[in-house]
């Protein structure tokens, strides 16, 4: 993995976006004003780490919902790919298709990565917690896919 450095900081206003999700619905970050939003970026549908992360959010979804927290997953996979991923793993939250990479670029999560000595461009696995006022409350630049959902929930525990 290449080192990730976001161009956004905690306290910044989260960049708005409008994009399609699985099911062909249009979603905008502005739709969730007044709610906390977990915006998690992941490299690819149906890959081991991304599946673990999505399933962890699925397994904790009731807890997030109880706290009024919205979950949005973002990758540059197509709407069709997202639909298959959602159906295969019964994911109860939307996956945003960022095929033109406008969202990953706005959040600064697209960049150089390394895998087995090869360098390539891709999405860094980064999560942003956006507060009800639309500001970035917390950024997780390094994510352990299987534990991440629980780690975020800790912030909402009284």
Description:
The radius of gyration is 14 Å and the shape is globular. With 158 residues, it is α+β, with helices and mostly antiparallel strands. A hairpin with a 5-residue loop joins strand 8 and strand 9. The protein has five helices and nine strands; from the N terminus they run βββααβαβαββββα. The strands form two sheets. Strands 2-1-5-4-3-8-9 form a seven-stranded mixed β-sheet. Strands 6-7 form a two-stranded antiparallel ribbon. The N and C termini lie far apart (35 Å).
What amount of the residues lies in strands?
25-35%
The separation of the N and C termini measures: 35 Å
Rg (C-alpha, Å): 14 Å
Helix content: 25-40%
Shape designation? globular
Largest sheet: 7 strands, mixed
Strand line-up in the sheet with most strands: 2-1-5-4-3-8-9
List the helices and strands and how they pair.
Blueprint: E1 18-21, E2 26-28, E3 36-41, H1 48-59, H2 61-66, E4 69-75, H3 79-89, E5 95-97, H4 102-106, E6 110-115, E7 118-123, E8 126-130, E9 136-140, H5 148-156
Summarize the structure.
The chain is of the alpha+beta class and 158 residues long. The chain is 27% helix and 28% strand.
Please describe the structure with a list of short key phrases separated by commas or semicolons.
158 residues; alpha+beta; 7-stranded mixed sheet; two-stranded antiparallel ribbon; 27% helix
């Amino acid at each position: 993995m290449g080192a990730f450095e976001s161009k956004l900081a905690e306290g910044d206003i989260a960049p708005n976006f409008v994009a399609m999700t699985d099911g062909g619905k249009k979603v905008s970050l502005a739709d969730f004003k007044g709610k906390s939003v977990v915006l998690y970026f992941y490299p690819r549908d149906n890959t081991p780490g991304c599946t673990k992360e999505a399933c962890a959010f699925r397994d904790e979804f009731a807890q997030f919902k109880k706290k009024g927290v919205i979950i949005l997953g973002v990758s540059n996979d197509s709407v069709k790919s997202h639909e298959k991923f959602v159906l295969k793993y019964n994911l109860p939250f939307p996956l945003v298709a960022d095929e033109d990479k406008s969202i990953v670029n706005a959040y600064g999560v697209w960049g150089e990565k390394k895998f087995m000595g090869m360098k390539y461009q891709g999405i860094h696995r980064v999560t942003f917690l956006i507060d009800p006022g639309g500001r970035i409350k917390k950024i997780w630049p390094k994510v352990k896919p299987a534990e991440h959902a629980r780690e975020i929930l800790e912030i909402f525990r009284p």
